Amino acid sequence: MSRHDRQDLGRRGFLAGAAAVASAAVAGTAVTGAAATPAAAASRPNILVILTDDQPNATEWATPNTVGWLVDNGVKFSRGHVSTPLCAPSRSSIFSGRYAHNHGVRDNSSPYNLDQHTTVQRYLHNSGYRTGLFGKYLNAWTNTDNPQHFDDWLLLDPVAYNNGTYNDNGTVRTIAGYSTTVIKNRVLDFLDTAGTDNRPWFAFVAPKAPHGPNTPEPKYADTAVPAWNGRPSVPEADRSDKPDYIKNATHTLDDGRTIRRNQLRTLLSVDDAVQEIHDKLAALGQLDNTLVFYLGDNGYCWGDHGWTAKSVPYRPAIEVPFYVSWPAAGLDGGTVDDRIAANIDIAPTILDAAGITPDTPQNGHSLLGSYRRDHLLVEWWHRGEGGDPHTWASTVSATRQYTEYYKLHTDTGGQQVGTGELVFREYYDLANDPYQLTNLLYQATPAQEAALGIPALAAQLAADRAA
């Protein structure tokens, strides 16, 4: 049996098991907002979302426990993406299953644009789930405001590594200690309540790590990490075919090494927390029927194309670790799924598993079904006037990526303003140029563009931005 056949067999087993569990759930709670019955509560899965902050791919060294649980005994989506490589828009897409141009949180300054009626926590809470939020929520959320549709929360704001300020179920206070550990301990308390509360639960767990300043826990402050010699995109010697902000980027391999080292050190504490959560679920007898997601809210460039941040339409920024496990549904086989998965798929998958039909539209699709997209819209807005990078949108498939930059930005309310004038384009053959070194549209003739299929890609991008 070939590797492909083994993966396909594992996926078919997962889909069959998921369908059986979801069918049982639907029988009890198909109506949106209906109260859960004891029978339904017994069949519906618990939901655990672990969301790291700025975690790119190629970080598995720091998360062996996470990989052992959710990859070796789950499914790794090898083409995991975010639809906007920025914290608040990405998190809003996870909560709502919608693209940023639909949920309205286009930048990190407008969290209140998210319609809370569309969120997965609202659906789950109204359907009888016990809901909890632990860690970072949405950028620029006022820490005296309680997050809606959560029964229990420890909201970290401003987001810090040590001695953070938290909204603790309505009381704002400082809690001493390393924030990853503080958050983990509160999650364990939340899980312990399952011993006396038989409702299914939803826990959204969001540590600061590995976001800058990448402050490691003291015990990991000097931990040696594996050597890294970069990749062809770091820092890329000739960027004449790139947009101006990339042409002018000045970050080096050494800059990338520093960021990588510090990110890995902070992730070691996340991995410890994941292991303790795993062990708690096992002790409670709830490991089998808990649907678990682990992903980053966006990736991060380690000097790729001279850039050390997110916000760009390049693979290190838009691709993330994306792991899923649900043993009760057969999702524990250590398979690799090569479908293009995205953060917009989290909410639809959760609702599918819980047997809940949303009453608001979603752009994502349940990963429990056989749906396979052939491309994904990725979009990003520049906040305020001036500066680079310009607002951009991109259509990404397994083999190619087409990007357009526009004269658009967000105003103080997070709304899109500007002329929309197209100012630059990029096209990469990802099959032959995975590091995006050669922009095939640079100085291309109309005939060459037609041969690359650019008119059709541009039309597809325009349609996706309007959908």
Automatic annotation (TrEMBL):
Answer whether the UniProt record assigns the keyword ATP-binding to this protein.
no
Asked if Cell inner membrane is a keyword of the record, the answer is no
Identify one Pfam family in the record: Sulfatase
Q: What are the protein's UniProt keywords?
A: Signal
Q: Where are the transmembrane segments?
A: none
Q: Where does the secretion signal sit in this chain? A: 1-27
Indicate what this protein is called per its UniProt record: Arylsulfatase A
Q: Where in this chain does the record put each Sulfatase N-terminal domain?
A: 45-356
